[in-house]
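Hey, quick one: can you model this chain's 3D structure?
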Amino acid sequence: MTRPEHTERDEAEETALVPATDEELGKTVAALTADDLEPDDRRRLLGRLVEDIRRRGLGQLFRPKAAVRWMADVVTDVAPHVPVRDRDTLQRHFPGLTDDDLADRLIRNAARGTASVGAVGGGVASIEWVATPTLLSAPVLLAAETVAVVAIELKLIGELHEIYGAPIRGGLGERAGGLLQAWSGQRGVNPLIPGVGLASVLGTAARRELQTSLLKRFGRNLSTLGPMLTGAAVASYLNRRATRSLGEHVRKDLKRKALEG
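Sure thing. Here's the predicted structure for all 261 residues.
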């Protein structure tokens, strides 16, 4: 008896079983943080992130507590891959702007980016209200949207630190740890606290703070599942507002620390 021919569908199914690596997730997330993405490109990248997350562990996302722990792991893994432009690069990209004007531009761009993620996610979810069985993918979509939004905000935080003369120092792990703690607390990184790396983020207290912040974002992103296109509109608005608020909190803290220093 001859062996059945190995089809492209078989290969696709086998590939789907292979967990996404941190590098694959990191590349997708890094691309999603770009300022000037077209809606179609953002939709394509969010779709890729959904597939990466689906391969990484779908079952965890159907249990709320496990889902938050799982997202904390994913965000911690992708944080070192978030591209943060240094001060010189930012000044080349946005010539002639004062520090405050440049901060305004970055906050506006980041808010626009997270709003776009919300709109894309809401648009996808609106289709799933028509095709009910595909609602099974809703937890994956919410997780992907949350991770994408957090990545854009981590980039914003890192670049605000660059603008206000307080770049986050250290290796990839230390910088990622500083970004995550700043995101969780909506504040600037304290340069007087040494060793704030990924190991510190994984500590009990810091990890609880990260998980609590992720839970709030995950809950807010439930608006994506609103019927038809209302989900897209609400998610876009809430993402934009939350990112602006985060950016302003971090900027205010950085300016206060600069004056005290």
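One thing worth noting: The chain is about 70% helix and 0% strand.
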